[in-house]
Amino acid sequence: MKTSAWHVVCAICFSLLAFASLHITAQQAPPRLELLTLRSTIFSNTRTIRVWLPPGYHAPEHRGHRYAVFYFTDGVAAFDARQLDKIADELVAKGKIPPTLFVGIDNGGSTRESKNPGSDRADEYLPYPDDSLRPPLKNPHGKLFPAFLEKEVRPLVEARYRTSGEVGLAGASYGGAIAVYTAMENPGTYQWLLIESPSLYIADNILLRRAERFRQWPARVYVGAGSNEGSGDAKLEMVDDATRFVKSVASSTEACFLLTPNAVHNEDAWRARLPAALTFLLGNSPCPAATQPN
């Protein structure tokens, strides 16, 4: 074989070997979204805990680095509908937020044992009854959620991953209500609180009334809402409740209120506001296009 032809063959072989090596490396790369199974003794059910790892988490040069953890209620919706992983990936890549672990906690309606997803979700997220709920739940178990988070979810995550002890908590609707309740039940525990369209009206506004007396809020609190949530008086109630809540919070910590004109009560609205919420909370950016409490 002529020398030039041999060089061509060798070049092709080396190219194929390089491609195969890259392919094998890609196949062996650790997953960025890991699924853990949690059997809860507090709620007597089994659910998935979704953990998103930031870029470079498994890199040898980062093995000594520890990460803040941001927990989201409604884990399936947080990752699927709100696209938490894609938004976090983009924000980290652009340097708008530091590398952070994002954890989605599946709700009671997403557990293996659930027979009625809507009612089972409400049962875990309502610390007090919601008289408007049909069928009603006279004795919901939401008061157990703070212990569930602190004694079952966090130990599971912190035993497996390199965490710094800095913690954020997020939720929407009922998930937002339980996030507010949990923050007040565990003062000084969380550095960030992100709530979207929270159900603050439950039990004759008890969460709002407690918030007006509470002072140990996380260092940064974000509240998002739309001006077109619900029908009739519900639209005005959402805006009024969110404004009243932020007013209470802002008296003792840094708060951001993002009120979106014409936005409704759904995942699309919460996903649209998520980048602004995370950059305010984790990136220490100013509150964008915000409605500040008077």
Q: Which helices and strands, and how do they pair?
A:
Layout: H1 3-28, E1 33-40, E2 45-52, E3 67-73, H2 75-80, H3 84-93, E4 101-105, H4 117-125, H5 145-160, E5 163-172, H6 174-185, E6 192-196, H7 202-213, E7 220-226, H8 233-250, E8 254-260, H9 267-281
Parallel strand pairs: 3-4, 3-5, 5-6, 6-7, 7-8
Antiparallel strand pairs: 1-2, 2-4
Helix pairs in contact: 3-9, 7-8
Account of the protein in words:
This protein has 294 residues and is an alpha/beta fold. The chain has two domains: 30 residues; 251 residues, Alpha/Beta hydrolase fold, catalytic domain (Rossmann fold). The chain contains nine helices and eight strands. An eight-stranded mixed sheet has the order 1-2-4-3-5-6-7-8, with helices on both faces. α3 runs parallel beside α9 and α7 runs parallel beside α8.
Helix/strand/pairing category: alpha/beta
**Overall mean confidence score, pLDDT:** 90
CATH architecture of the largest domain: 3-Layer(aba) Sandwich
Shape: globular
Number of strands: 8
Radius of gyration: 22 Å
**CATH class categorisation of the largest domain:** Alpha Beta
Helix content: 40-55%
Q: How far from one another are the termini?
A: 85 Å
Sheet having the most strands: 8 strands, mixed
Query: Proportion of β residues?
Result: 15-25%
Number of domains: 2
Residue windows where pLDDT falls under 50 for at least 5 positions: 5-28
Order of helices and strands: HEEEHHEHHEHEHEHEH
CATH topology name of the largest domain: Rossmann fold
Number of helices: 9
User: How is the largest sheet built, in terms of strand order?
Assistant: 1-2-4-3-5-6-7-8
Q: Can you tell me the CATH superfamily of the largest domain?
A: Alpha/Beta hydrolase fold, catalytic domain
